[in-house]
Amino acid sequence: MRGAILAIGNELVEGRVPNTTSFLAARRLFPLGYEIREILTVPDDLALIKESLRRFLGRYPFVIVSGGLGPTTDDLTNEAVAEALGLPLEVKEEVLKRIEAWEKEAGLPPNPLRRKMAKLPAGAVLLTNEKAMAGYYLKVGEKLIFCLPGVPQEFEYLLKERVIPILLEHFPPEEVVRFKLYKIFGLREADINLRLMELEELPGVVLGYYPVLPEIHLSLTVKHPSKEKAEELFRQAEAKIYSLFGEYIFGENDDLLEAVVGRLLEERGEMLAVAESCTGGLISSRITRVPGSSAYFERGVVTYSNRAKQEILGVPEEMIAKHGAVSEPVALAMAEGIRNLARTNYGLSVTGIAGPTGGTPEKPAGTVWIGFSCREATVAQCFLFPGDRHLVQDFSATTALDWLRRYLRYGTLVPRYQFARRS
Amino acid sequence: MRGAILAIGNELVEGRVPNTTSFLAARRLFPLGYEIREILTVPDDLALIKESLRRFLGRYPFVIVSGGLGPTTDDLTNEAVAEALGLPLEVKEEVLKRIEAWEKEAGLPPNPLRRKMAKLPAGAVLLTNEKAMAGYYLKVGEKLIFCLPGVPQEFEYLLKERVIPILLEHFPPEEVVRFKLYKIFGLREADINLRLMELEELPGVVLGYYPVLPEIHLSLTVKHPSKEKAEELFRQAEAKIYSLFGEYIFGENDDLLEAVVGRLLEERGEMLAVAESCTGGLISSRITRVPGSSAYFERGVVTYSNRAKQEILGVPEEMIAKHGAVSEPVALAMAEGIRNLARTNYGLSVTGIAGPTGGTPEKPAGTVWIGFSCREATVAQCFLFPGDRHLVQDFSATTALDWLRRYLRYGTLVPRYQFARRS
To answer: Which domain holds residue A294?
Structure first.
């Protein structure tokens, strides 16, 4: 079942605001059996919008349109849809009432432009009861056109709560689609390629390989008219993927590494503290983006200066003077220091050179020591991460979190990693 | 001067990987006078690629194509371009040599699929001398078609270093375009709208209004055949914008708030330390994403647990027991505590309820106290931020950083903010 997405807005084609909603929609629709074939972004131009709508409706059973539903003179979607389909515009009383109520509540004077939002193509069915949220759909013969607001939160809400159920009802999927994304970290790209070659002989499955640095994502798609057969092919392929990539798969689908680690800690009733230097708070921030992280995250310190390393973590001044802040002894002292200070089960430390400045021939930018402290031992590894400052920080944070994951999941004290270098 | 962008890749239309390159290109091209009218994303489908290419070349003077230049069976761009233009594919010796050299260096066996990358449409001009980077362009009559790799870093490099110079030479801009983006924070949307109404009477200027929560971005575009007139109109409009929004504009164009704050600190030779609870490291991380931040950022602490607040910052246990962690006394104690501990000029603190859990009727999710400590005084404000956990954290971090900005820039000890609430 194929469809297209039309995203409208000058801010999009001028690159002021990235078009995230179209790709999010495509992502949600694909595993359900709805294949988006074209995603077109156009400016607030009536002729271009009409032409694009006509072309899409001519060739696809459904079209999702985003943007252009607002009150400004640039908002042209209602007009364009009406003209493209040869429908009159009609004032929808309910929308008019909602606009008036919203204006009153916001303390704003009545604005005639806003009333434009109440003029919808004849036959439009509202998608929501929310006071300030636009959105409707139309049946055009056997086809469907959805018009959604461009604001990401509103678009996503309506897509999930209204568009998808309507699609599922109107166009029940003809094939069974089984889909999963496997998130991989720690393997060299060449190693992944070698292992992937063993997978490509499986019949009926389509694999996708997506570097999303520092991670690699592997997608598995199985389509079959028969549910049993689709499930069987899927199970076989998944088993093969796990046997090939095992410990390096940290999660599936929307899993975030920091949430996976959090769940593992929470299951064991254990706690973590982190001491960061060059990652500068990134690890703590990633952990605390996850709701409920206070169950397993006790504290973090960003000992950005050497003085902070000494004062907060007790790293001896002589140690830093002798070995440098980016060294094995300091990484060990920081990891053990934060674990003792916080009295947690685990401590992670990162000390390195994120770049672009600060590198030397002996310790170039990208040189990062990561320390891991648990009851069993305190250990550290040296890495040489590629890329610019942000990528080095991202790799460092991901490696540290993934190290803890592999210890919790597999008991590995010193896991092997891509980019590890001999000290 | 109008053009279009065609982004090719199953991973894009399936939403596996967001299409960032197209929008980045549009953003870079727009201020130079090159208006992207359509951004189309299609799958790895020969027929669809050819048809889209033909349509774009039929109506626009230039087209930028990304993706599909690799060695896999899904990579169809060269074939599609050749067929759409009726050109033969020819082996480019130089590309073949590069592939062989790259394989040798990477220790990979010769792969016949990779040699496909050396078969380009006749007349293709290579865009780079880089060994492992694909990319070429073609003149089609008076028109230009650029074929770039989909990998963001490679696409951006070639766009900036090769595509833009070629465009400027082949299609010198007919109008002078002056463009700037103003980044605003702290004003209510209704207030911004009121002020914007005063701007809309200026002739010859186009304004754009883009919520990029928690910030608001305002774009100013002036186009005129005469350079002097364009500059004059631009200056007038900019002066008006600054007079209307003044203290609430924290930066322009690509400025990041954390970098603006960093520059202000560095100019004064002053230093900052932060104590975070519900922002969980986000402030420290944003600061340290900026290269050179060690010049003004001494340390951060993420006192996620109450015990950490007590142990690291000396916040008395009785104070937390009496007022709660999310309170004015605690915010003040944290801000002053970290400033004293780190012996910095400034301390920032955040303690709040990011949600979704943890709220009460008295202190609902979104309730955040932010503290600011400097030599002059230590003060705190209470906020009620909207949205989900991430948005509350983003608003908190931005408010804290912006508070410091407004103190450094304007000497305001307690700046007024959107979402501030009476304690």
So the answer is: 257-422
